[in-house]
Amino acid sequence: MPTQIRNFAEAQLESVKALLDSPPCSQRELLPYILIMVSVRLVAPWQLIRLAVSSAESDDATRIAVSPYACAVDIVLADIERMVGRLKAELRRGATDSVVALMRHIHDGARGLRTELDLSGDTPWTRRLGAIRTDVSDALKAEIESVPGRVRRLLRPRPASEIARSSMLDASEVAETEALIELVGACRNYASELAISEMTLRAYSEVQHHLDTGTRSLLDGLRHAGEADRRFRQSQVHAAVRFCAKVFGQEYASLLAKAAEVAANAAGERKAAATA
After folding, report:
1. 56 in a structural domain
2. Are residues 68 and 133 in contact, defined by beta-carbon separation less than 8 angstroms?
3. Is 261 domain-assigned?
4. What is the C-alpha separation between 133 and 172, in angstroms, rounded?
5. Coil, strand or helix at 42
6. Which residues on adjacent β-strands are paired with residue 118?
7. Of the candidates 178, 186, 165, 166, which has an alpha carbon nearest to the alpha carbon of residue 211?
8. What angle do CA 212, 215, 220 make, to 5 degrees?
């Protein structure tokens, strides 16, 4: 077999199937182990189910379940379940990049199963895939739904009386919120397959609305800031710039950063005029 199979279809699929059907591989008790050896060579491991479809000459789950290669579907499902376990662990660590990568692989595997197999009936595989989607949705729910509240809390315009002199937003909380905004943005690409469409759309829309309508108040606050509250208001605007880069793009964020610079200069000029 090739050391890496980018697209397990047509000639390569037939070649591997012929190899697996040959006498050296004909012992059925070895098949799960052989299939795992095939799987690790696939760029998209979920494509292993194509052996089961080819063997059964059908995409019907009931027919595939009684075919010799039925365990290929179980191997793919087990691999997706393993990735869901890793997803939960990475969420607890706050490792956003790893979470996004795992979501992509889980999404591709789930979509591949639904596309390549007819899972319309009530089969064990259908229920197992449904449980995976529910598990992912439950794991991501708290993270996704927390984002709008985090953004509102950090960027809420405050009267000067509520701001401790020379205080700033907590840098770690800003970074965590920025990472979560990026996570919600990535979730939009995989939402339908992972049963998180509604919560993702709602959270992302709320963040967009708050950033779109709230930045003007932050700029006004910075423009009229005094010595005691200027540092805090600058930290709010800087956080808004970072959040806007994730939601609206770098060009929008750059314009906001320039507007913040103008507002800060206006505050400095006002202070100089007052002391002159």
Report:
1. yes
2. no
3. yes
4. 31
5. strand
6. 60
7. 178
8. 145
Q: Looking at the structure, do residues 152 and 269 belong to the same domain, yes or no?
A: yes
CA separation for the pair 36, 113 (Å, rounded): 17
Per-residue pLDDT tens over the stretch 208-260: 999 999 999 999 999 988 889 999 999 999 999 999 999 999 999 999 999 99
At 270, list the tokens.
């006002």
Same domain for 23 and 100?
yes
Residue 206 is assigned to a structural domain of this protein: yes
On whether residue 132 sits in a domain, the answer given is no
Please name the helix (run of DSSP H) or strand (run of DSSP E) that holds residue 40, with its range, or none.
none
Query: Based on the domain organization, do 111 and 195 belong to the same domain?
Result: no
**Which residue's entry shows tokens 């050896």?**
37
| Contact status, residue 104 vs residue 96, Cβ threshold 8 Å | no
Class of residue 122 by CB neighbours under 10 A (exposed 0-12, middle 13-18, buried 19+): exposed
Is residue 115 located within the same domain as residue 188? no
Tokens matching residue 53: 């479809």
Task: Please give the backbone phi and psi of residue 5, each rounded to the nearest 5 degrees, phi first.
Answer: -115, 110
Q: What range defines the domain where residue 76 resides?
A: 10-121
Pair (147, 232) in one structural domain = yes
Of 52, 57, 53, nearest in space to 32 by CA: 52
Whole-model pTM: value is 0.84
Do residue 218 and residue 95 come from a single domain?
Answer: no
pLDDT value, residue 195: 86
Round to whole Å and give the CA distance between 150 and 184. 13
**Structural domain count, the chain:** 2
CA-CA-CA-CA torsion for 190, 196, 200, 201, nearest 10 degrees? 90
Q: Are 177 and 252 in the same domain?
A: yes
Q: Can you tell me the distance from the alpha carbon of 184 to that of 223, in angstroms, rounded to the nearest whole number?
A: 31
